[in-house]
Design brief:
single chain, nine-stranded antiparallel sheet, 12 strands, mainly beta
Length: 159
């Protein structure tokens, strides 16, 4: 966890929190469409705080299995997420993030080639402290695994 000072032109400074996480090993899902918590992308959020979300996910697997995702958020949280994909079937989604709501209702971005890069940009505003967790699974169950590759990142910055 890194702290970045925000001086804002005043004589007092308030530290703004930046939480950066990087996937150091490949994470796998095989033969499952059940959303699971990502092993690396879980964040503890403060109450009454807004965070920007910036994520770059390297996803690979069979075009037959695809990829779906959602965020679980603290009670009372709201915000917005824009997701884009560089796969051969370019996808862009812009949707609200809210308590218990899947940004795309579990449908997810679909990999139409063996590999895809997914960019998630947005923000979340909390009223209560709690956990933000990225979840994902195969869109269609397949014995060929879906992966989020090492080097994928997710960064939350308090604004």
């Amino acid at each position: 966890m890194k702290q970045i000072a925000n001086f804002g032109g005043s004589s007092t400074s308030t530290a703004k929190e930046t939480i950066s996480k990087v996937k150091t090993t490949r994470e796998t899902v095989t033969s499952s469409t059940t959303l699971q918590d990502d092993e690396d992308f879980t964040f503890e959020l403060k109450a009454n705080t807004t965070y920007s979300i910036n994520s770059n996910l390297f996803v690979s697997g069979s075009s037959a299995c695809g990829f779906k995702w959602l965020f679980t958020v603290p009670s009372g949280a709201n915000g917005r997420i824009n997701a884009t994909s560089n796969s051969s079937n370019y996808v862009s989604i812009d949707t609200d993030i809210a308590t218990g709501f899947s940004p795309i209702d579990g449908v997810g971005l679909t990999t139409t080639a063996a590999n895809g890069n997914y960019r998630l940009l947005g923000f979340i505003t909390t009223t209560n402290a709690g956990t933000l967790t990225f979840q994902w699974a195969q869109k269609q169950s397949s014995a060929t695994a879906a992966y989020i590759e090492r080097g994928s990142t997710m960064i939350l910055t308090e604004v």
